[in-house]
């Protein structure tokens, strides 16, 4: 097995001291250069970085408008931001008419809740999102 797979197994079964357990499902991971950023699950107030060159996990300290804990959301990177949408909420509930869209600045690790306009797709979980052609 590869070193990356071995590191992911440690993430899933909780053998590393990274705070994830087997119950930490429903997370998303995005690639930011040579670092994989992982967010979500019952520990959504935490963001983890896997530095792919050395396969070492570190917890990232975030500031700003930190989203409520969520699972089964979507996340993509665009520029220097991780964009997070929807999900099944684990903690305090957002308004039912709210389409929760958040951005995490991957340089400062500052969260922002983004106000959107127009009729959106509504609350979603168990979905995917992609960035194609820079859009």
Layout of helices and strands:
Blueprint: H1 3-13, E1 28-32, E2 35-39, E3 47-51, E4 56-60, E5 63-64, E6 70-71, E7 74-78, E8 81-85, E9 88-89, E10 101-105, E11 110-113
Name the descriptors.
135 residues; mainly beta; five-stranded mixed beta sheet; four-stranded antiparallel beta sheet; globular
Task: Explain the overall architecture.
The chain is mainly β. It is built from one helix and eleven strands. It has one helix spanning 3-13; strands spanning 28-32, 35-39, 47-51, 56-60, 63-64, 70-71, 74-78, 81-85, 88-89, 101-105, 110-113. The strands form three sheets. A five-stranded mixed sheet has the order 5-11-10-8-7, with no helix packed on it. A four-stranded antiparallel sheet has the order 1-2-3-4, with no helix packed on it. A hairpin with a 2-residue loop joins strand 7 and strand 8. The chain starts with a helix and ends in a 22-residue tail after the last strand.
């Amino acid at each position: 097995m590869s070193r990356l797979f071995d590191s992911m197994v440690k993430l899933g079964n909780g053998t590393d001291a990274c705070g994830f357990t087997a119950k930490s499902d429903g997370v998303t991971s995005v690639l930011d250069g040579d670092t994989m950023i992982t967010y979500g699950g019952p520990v959504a107030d935490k963001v983890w970085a896997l530095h792919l060159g050395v396969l070492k996990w570190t917890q990232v300290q975030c500031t700003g408008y930190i989203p409520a804990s969520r699972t089964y959301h979507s996340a993509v990177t665009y520029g220097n931001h991780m964009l997070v949408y929807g999900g099944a909420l684990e903690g305090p509930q957002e308004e039912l008419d709210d389409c929760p869209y958040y951005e995490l600045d991957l340089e400062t690790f500052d969260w922002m809740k983004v106000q959107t306009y127009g009729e959106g797709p509504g609350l979603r979980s168990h979905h995917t999102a992609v960035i194609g052609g820079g859009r």
